[in-house]
């Protein structure tokens, strides 16, 4: 390849990169894809509207005034399955008028997998359906489970990657602190 061709390719790559930076921005809250916003600690967690198992539309913003645990999971994910009983314990422990769990199932077949799973495990917290994983894309999740703890004003306080014991004294006390703040 001639040096002039190499130089032209380098110039085109530089201009292409500058165009992309100008057009799509360098905002660190963006992820691959145009306009998809990551969940950023200290900022409002982007709202969503998803269907629950009773076919009701549920929005995160419907729960302002409560501390909310938004939990992205799947029935085929062993760590997700393992932590669900501790989430149920947490749900039964904290006051429902001040705390909510919104468990967003990303199973591709939606209700077919999520509803029997919730019944079989005796889980009573709300399960929402997101078979296209729109939340995963917009929040920038890297896998499941991932959890987002949201304060009473809708601000993301903490993002947790992986499973934890939600019924541990540390988890309960941390959430009680947010509820009482």
Please explain how this structure is put together.
With 181 residues, the protein is an alpha/beta fold. It folds into 2 domains: 1-27; 31-180, 3-Layer(aba) Sandwich (Glutaredoxin). It is built from 5 helices and 7 strands. The protein has helices at residues 3-24, 78-93, 111-121, 134-139, 169-180, and strands spanning 49-52, 57-59, 67-73, 99-105, 127-129, 146-150, 156-161. It has a 7-stranded mixed beta sheet, covered by helices on one side. Helix 2 links the parallel strand 3 (67-73) and strand 4. Residues 7-35 have low confidence and may be disordered.
Key attributes of the depicted protein:
single chain; 181 residues; alpha/beta; Glutaredoxin; seven-stranded mixed beta sheet; 5 helices; 7 strands; 37% helix; globular
CATH class category label of the largest domain: Alpha Beta
How is the main sheet built? Answer: 7 strands, mixed
Task: Kindly state the number of beta strands.
Answer: 7
Which topology of the largest domain does CATH recognise?
Glutaredoxin
In terms of DSSP E residues, the strand content is 15-25%
User: Helicity range of the residues?
Assistant: 25-40%
> What sequence of helices (H) and strands (E) makes up the elements?
HEEEHEHEHEEH
Order of the strands making up the biggest sheet = 2-1-5-4-3-6-7
User: Can you tell me the residue ranges where pLDDT is under 50 for at least 5 consecutive residues?
Assistant: 7-35
Rounded Rg: 20 Å
User: For this structure, what is the CATH homologous superfamily of the largest domain?
Assistant: Glutaredoxin
Structural class: alpha/beta
**Separate helix tally:** 5
